[in-house]
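Put briefly, the fold is written as integer tokens. One such record reads:
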Amino acid sequence: MNMIDSVSAQEAYRDELVAAGLLIPTGVDGLYGRSGMFEEVVERFDALVTVWGGADGAEVMRFPPALNRKYFEESEYLKSFPHLAGTIHSFAGDERAHRSLLRRLEEGQDWTEDQVATDVVMTPAACYPVYPTVAARGPLPEEGRLIDVFSYCFRHEPSIDPARMQLFRMREYIRVGTPEQVMEFRETWLRRGREMMGSLGVPLDIDVANDPFFGRAGTMLSNNQRDQKLKFELLIPITSEEKPTACLSFNYHQDHFGHLWDIKTADGGVAHTACVGFGMERVALALFRHHGFDVARWPAPVRSVLWG
């Protein structure tokens, strides 16, 4: 499939989802409302994730989709993904500036010149608030920590591809501990992820991957990530068979976040971290693509897994 055909397939599937009432357009690419049925599928999949991971005893944390700007700056996200970051600004002018803002707004001009950055930014990944939170508690216990998070996330990459939303939900399990604890966690979830998604009757593959690091230095980081097999993705065709969509990711950060936030293991070493992330909207889109828009007609085994 060439680039034009790929874009056409993305646009066609988006239009089908909108026509079926599953996605509600807002006039901005990658920003959608969701129907009740779409949300039900997301909720059923979320419950399935808990079935597979809930017995591990993860500590549940739920954060809003905004992150402390100081934490964001410390995360070094801007070094690697400045093109995806979303900052939150607010009006900081006086009455005169307000009158000017209203005039420019009425005239269709840029009204944002008196906006200044606030103390919060949009959360780029559900795991980001976890690391400074864990670090603030002091050294890890012997068994390390396992955290369960779920959040809306923002990435500035407007697209007509319905599987590449600007605001989307991510469920994650995050393991913090020794290299051995962390690698065991990732290997467990590589197996679980394949089995769990296989139970939903969708075609899938797991392959080594890399993040979209920015710039020339980013190319080296991407190559290094692939060479060391630090990131795997579970891929499902949604709008393309040749370029399937990453619906789950399995990431080993080594000691990167441990160094950034000074997270220590029980014996004083630098903690390693890994996470498994579930793209909630992407999984729902994959299910609608392969089983149809009428969930009542989905294969009985799939309905049994999701609805019991």
User: Anything to note?
Assistant: The mean pLDDT is 93.
